[in-house]
Amino acid sequence: MVKEWFKLVRFANVLFIGGIPIVLHYAFVQPLMGESGLSTVELLLLFVSLFCIGCAGNIINDVFDQETDEINKPEKRSVGVTITENAAFWLFGILSTIGFVFFCAVAYLNDQLEYVIIYPFNLVLLWLYSMELKGRILIGNIIIAFLASTNVLIVALFDLLPVESSRSPIFNTCWNTLLVLSAFAFLSTLIREIVKDLEDVKGDTASGYKTFAITFNCRTVKSVLLFLITLDITALLWVSSLFYPDHYEVLIWTSIVLILPLVIIAVALVLAEKATQYHKISTWLKIHMLLGLLSPIVLIYTL
């Protein structure tokens, strides 16, 4: 049963979500600035908070997506099979509450109570996405992309902004980098969500969804994806040359680790026809985003 609960909340995925502030704190903000806004205790509270909302989001999504999952991925279903819908709702409520309390604690200890609104706002978006908006053209994709970007923005708000006056030039570099990472998370997630729509066309159609992949033909969807990938590549090159013109290590890292895989993904996308192929591309995009969010660890040695 424990294994089923782990599968329901996508334990590895939410560990990654909750771990983003920890990685960026210890590998980028703290070494670069020499200080940061979050203490160790606050950082752990933030980790638990993001972990909880990630788990809660996955649970409520599976609750509302039982019919679709029965077609798209029956072997991965938990709600309605090994876990009752009522139990899933209870866990959603418990995790949401714990996450909100911990997020409020971080905001209070950090003297930034105005940011408390972020948590319930994101939670409402997750609920609306799972219940209704995921089946709308691009709206659901954009919501998930936005939520992914906020995980990086939270680091900028809580960990970096409180020490703005300490070292202004370094602060600007750090702040710009986090904003770029947030935009990168948004665009990468948007691309991946559209690819997942291509993968889930069969079940989404049966559920009456009107996703981008269902509303338009495959060729049109692929053309949009290729445009977004080109935009991603262009942005990566532009940011590398604009923010780090004298650091060729950044350009080398960007070209080999981030841009080259995108080119390969673009080729694979053009050739893909089956759901299993789109699933592989989706996995590659997840790894690509992980490498992108870990880029500051490399940048710290070049600045």
List the helices and strands and how they pair.
Blueprint: H1 2-9, H2 11-33, H3 40-64, H4 66-72, H5 85-109, H6 118-131, H7 139-160, H8 168-199, H9 201-206, H10 212-215, H11 218-243, H12 248-271, H13 275-293, H14 295-299
Helix pairs in contact: 2-3, 2-7, 3-5, 3-6, 6-7, 7-8, 8-11, 8-13, 11-12, 12-13
Features:
UbiA_sf, UbiA family prenyltransferase, 303 residues, mainly alpha, UbiA_prenyltransferase, transferase activity, transferring alkyl or aryl (other than methyl) groups, membrane
- Ends distance: 48 Å
Oligomer: single chain
- The total beta strand count reads 0
Mean pLDDT: 84
Membrane topology: Multi-pass membrane protein
GO molecular function, one term: transferase activity, transferring alkyl or aryl (other than methyl) groups
InterPro entries: Prenyltransferase_related, UbiA_prenyltransferase, UbiA_sf
Keywords: Cell membrane, Membrane, Transmembrane, Transmembrane helix
Structure description:
This protein has 303 residues and is mostly helical. It has one domain (2-299). The chain has helices at 2-9, 11-33, 40-64, 66-72, 85-109, 118-131, 139-160, 168-199, 201-206, 212-215, 218-243, 248-271, 275-293, 295-299. α2 (11-33) runs parallel beside α7.
